Amino acid sequence: MLNRRKAQLAEAELDITSFMNLMIVLVPVLLLSLVFAQIRVLNIQLPGITEQLIQQEREQPQQLELEVHADKLRLNYPAGVPLQEFVLTEQGQLDFASLSLYLQDLKLTWQQKQIDKQAITILAEPDLDYQTLVTAMDTVRSFKAVVTAQVVDAELFPLISLGELPQAENAP
Q1: Which percentage of the chain shows pLDDT scores above 70?
Q2: What is the longest distance spanned by two Cα atoms in the chain?
Q3: Which CATH number describes the domain made up of 50-167?
Q4: What are the residue ranges spanned by the domains of the chain?
């Protein structure tokens, strides 16, 4: 009787070869399908030295500016001269949708007048949160348009420069 139990125990062997084959295929497929970190690069232009800025203003005196305040957005053209102001929406958020529509109309008007502007300067408050700044950059860079039944990013002002609002305008 003891011999039978030993024989039964010796015969009970697990065959995990097919399971191991499945894991060898499944693990790499799952690892390749994961997104570990999604990195997106936003290209901006850093301000140059003062002499270069003066030279640039002589060549291109009319610069488009977007001032991003905590309670409003102000579009200036030429620099320092208010063109349009966008106040908070009913939900208490900055009105980036209206800004995008206005910039689309402005770009179309300039294209009809043969004016090719691609640069904009975003002036922000020092304590502005990062997400608001990125949203402003995305809004002035491009907008969604439907071309031949596909949604594409149409270009507005892709050359973005960043700056800080002057202290006098920051004061309440």
Answers
A1: 75
A2: 106
A3: 3.30.420
A4: 2-33, 50-167
